[in-house]
Every structure is written in C-alpha cells, then in structure tokens.
Amino acid sequence: MRTKFLFMLCSFMMMFFTLSSFKTEVPLNGELIIQDSKEVDGVYDGHEDSTYRFTIRSNGETDTLSFQKIDDAVLSDFDLNSQTLVGVSFKITYTTEVVVTKSADGTDVKTEVNTITKLEKL
Predict the structure, then answer these.
(1) Which of 9, 27, 86, 92 has an alpha carbon 20 to 30 Å from 36's alpha carbon atom?
(2) Under a CB-based contact definition with an 8 Å cutoff, are residues 122 and 80 in contact?
(3) How far is CA 54 from CA 28, 43, 68, 77, in A?
(4) Which pTM does this prediction carry?
(5) Distance (Å, rounded) from C-alpha 38 to C-alpha 14?
(6) 100 within 8 A of 26, measured Cβ to Cβ
(7) How would you label 87-96 residue by residue, b for 16+ Cβ within 10 Å and e otherwise?
(8) What HEC string does the chain produce?
C-alpha cells in the first residue's frame, strides 16, 4: 500500500514539474501578451506614422518588418526619427507582443506589436 502511494506521489510530482515548465500566456488587464525576443539583420527604411520600418532579407526574399515601439535607450543611441540613418544596416533585437482585444461585435482581435530593444550597426 505504501509503495503504491509513493509511486502515485512521484508520478504527480513529475507531472507537476513537467507541466509547469511550459511557456505560459499571461493575461494583463484583459489583454493577452506573449513576448519572444528575436534577432534579425535589416536595413533601416525610415520612420512613418509612428512605425519604424526595416527591409529584411530571408531565404532570398525581401520583406519589410515594422516596429511600433522602440526602447528609450535605443532612441538615445540612434536617432531613428531623422533621415540620417536611412539605408544603414543594423542587427535588430526585438520582442513581439500579441495583444488580444474585443471588437465592437465581441470577437477577439489579435494585434502584433513589435518593440526594438537593441540596435547594433553592421
């Protein structure tokens, strides 16, 4: 009987630690936020309508990556609001938040918000 109890206890503990090690999505004030830090190389295209745009090359294809936010520390090092850095290549470290809000008809609307956390000139 004692062996069965110890076996069940060990099984429960292993399951608890296994399940608790997975990445979780944390709701914050009714919004779902998922953050992943990523790095990519890109050429700065400029700033327009509160969005910073970079041209990214991946697998032989060119794409535009937009950032809605930028850390203050990065802006103090690089003046991305001026035209002087347009055409300059950077290594970009950024996070992505997926924010879920409700539309007027009650459906979930997912919006990705990219934030630059670090820039390095290449």
Answers:
(1) 86
(2) no
(3) 29, 5, 12, 17
(4) 0.65
(5) 31
(6) no
(7) eeebebbbbe
(8) CHHHHHHHHHHHHHHHHHHHCCCCCEEECCEEECCEEEEEEEEEEEEECCEEEEEEEECCEEEEEEECEECHHHHHHCCCCCCCCCCCEEEEEEEEEEEEEECCCCCEEEEEEEEEEEEEEC
Q: For residue 7, what pLDDT is reported? A: 57
pLDDT digits (tens, 9 = 90+) for 48-84: 888 999 999 888 899 999 999 999 999 999 999 889 9
